[in-house]
Design brief:
358 residues, alpha+beta, 5 helices, 35% strand, globular
Length: 358
C-alpha cells in the first residue's frame, strides 16, 4: 500500500499574499474635507440578483482622514431609508473563504502505485451570463446644471444623502460647497454617470461613531438594494482614489446560475492540472503568478476564478473551514431575493485588473 499526495487547487479568488503591487477597486470614490491624499486599498463586493432586484454589499478598507469623509457611488434609482443597512464584516470573511484559492492535499490508498510527487489540481466553473458589469450609464440626457437632494437619512455611522444632478461640474461644485474635496480628475469620471441619469449615493461618516482599529477607521460594511433592468457595477469612479493598477473582485450569489461580464472578454483561471510538491509551500506566490500570466495572455479580460453550487453547511469538494450559513445569506440580501437557510446557491467569483488607461 502506498500513499498518494493529491493537491487540489479550486479556482479561487482574493488578492493573495505576494501580489503587493496591486490594490483592490472600489465602486465609487472617496471625498474628504482635508487636503490629504487618499487611496482605496481594499474593497470586497458581494452581489445578489433575482429578476430585476440587485443587492450590493461592500466592505471598504479606508485609511485616511475622517474629517468630512464620504463615499460616493452611482446608483440607478433613488434609495430610501430601509433600502440601506450595515452588515457584520464576518459575512464577507465567510464568502471570501468559500471562493478563495486553496491547495488541498489528499492521502489515499492507490492500488496502482504512481509516483508520490504527482499532484493534481482541479476546479469547476459552470454557467450563465452576467448583464453589463462595468458599464458607465443607464441612458443619455443633459440639461441645466442643478443638483437635487432626493433623500436624506442616517444608518449607523453613516449620514446618507441621495443626489441627482444634470451636470458633472454642478455635482462637483455641490460637493465642494458642502466642504468635500473631490480627488483630482474625478469630474470627468463623474460625467458619464451624470449623463446616463444615475443618482449618487453619498455616505458621509460621523467620526464620533467610528471604531478605530490599529490607528485607522474600521467602517461598517454597507448594503443597499434596488430594482433596475441593468445589472452593472460603476467601477470607473474607483480610479479617482487609485494609486495605479487595481484589482476588482466581485462575488455574485445566485439561486441557480453563474455569471459572466457581458461587455468584456471572459476567461477561466487555469485549473485541472498537475503541480509539483513545492507548490504546497509557496501557493500564494504560485497563484499570484498564475493570475498574472492569465491576465498577460488575455489583456482586458475578466477572469472567472470560482463558480460552484453550494448550500449552507455544505460547500464543495474540496471544502474550506468557512460556513456560509443561512444568516450570512440573509444579511447579504437573501431576505429580499428569497434565499433562506435551506437554499442552495451558486457563488461566482470574478476578478478584473485594470488601470486608468485600460
Amino acid at each position: 500500500m502506498r500513499s498518494q499526495s493529491i493537491i487540489a487547487a479550486v479556482a479561487g479568488v482574493v488578492a493573495v499574499a505576494g501580489a503587493a503591487h496591486t490594490a483592490h477597486a472600489f465602486c465609487g470614490f472617496y471625498v474628504s474635507g482635508s487636503g490629504e491624499k487618499m487611496f482605496n486599498d481594499a474593497t470586497q463586493v458581494v452581489l445578489m440578483r433575482d429578476g430585476t432586484r440587485t443587492v450590493l454589499s461592500m466592505q471598504n478598507d479606508y485609511k485616511g482622514p475622517l474629517e468630512d469623509f464620504a463615499m460616493v457611488v452611482p446608483v440607478p434609482v433613488v434609495l430610501h431609508d430601509g433600502d440601506v443597512k450595515t452588515l457584520d464584516a464576518r459575512v464577507f470573511a465567510h464568502v471570501e473563504a468559500l471562493g478563495s484559492p486553496r491547495l488541498v492535499e489528499y492521502w489515499e490508498q492507490d492500488p496502482c502505485p504512481r509516483p508520490v510527487d504527482e499532484l493534481v489540481a482541479y476546479g469547476d466553473a459552470g454557467g450563465m451570463a452576467f448583464g453589463a458589469g462595468g458599464g458607465t450609464g443607464y441612458g443619455v440626457g443633459m440639461g441645466r446644471a442643478t443638483v437635487k437632494v432626493e433623500a436624506k437619512f442616517d444608518v449607523a455611522e453613516y449620514q446618507i444623502v441621495i443626489l441627482s444632478a444634470t451636470d458633472s461640474a454642478g455635482l462637483a461644485t455641490w460637493l465642494e460647497d458642502n466642504k468635500y474635496k473631490i480627488p483630482a480628475g474625478a469630474e470627468p469620471l463623474l460625467r458619464p454617470y451624470v449623463e446616463g441619469g444615475s443618482k449618487f449615493f453619498v455616505a458621509k461618516v460621523n467620526p464620533a461613531k467610528v471604531r478605530m482599529v490599529d490607528g485607522h477607521a474600521e467602517l461598517s460594511p454597507l448594503r443597499f438594494h434596488y430594482d433596475s433592468e441593468d445589472f452593472s457595477l460603476p467601477i470607473r469612479l474607483g480610479m479617482a482614489n487609485s494609486s495605479g493598477t487595481q484589482d476588482l473582485i466581485v462575488n455574485i450569489i445566485s439561486k441557480d446560475r453563474r455569471y459572466e461580464v457581458a461587455n468584456y472578454k471572459n476567461v477561466f483561471i487555469p485549473t485541472n492540472f498537475d503541480v509539483k510538491n513545492a507548490v504546497k509551500e509557496r501557493f500564494a506566490e504560485f497563484y499570484a503568478a498564475l493570475f498574472d500570466a492569465t491576465v498577460r495572455a488575455n489583456p482586458g479580460a475578466v477572469v472567472t476564478e470560482y463558480a460552484w453550487s453550494a448550500k449552507p453547511s455544505y460547500h464543495c469538494d474540496p471544502c474550506t473551514n468557512a460556513d456560509v450559513n443561512g444568516g450570512d445569506l440573509a444579511a447579504l440580501g437573501g431576505d429580499v431575493v428569497g434565499l433562506d437557510a435551506r437554499s442552495e446557491f451558486v457563488l461566482t467569483r470574478l476578478h478584473a485588473r485594470y488601470g486608468k488607461r485600460t
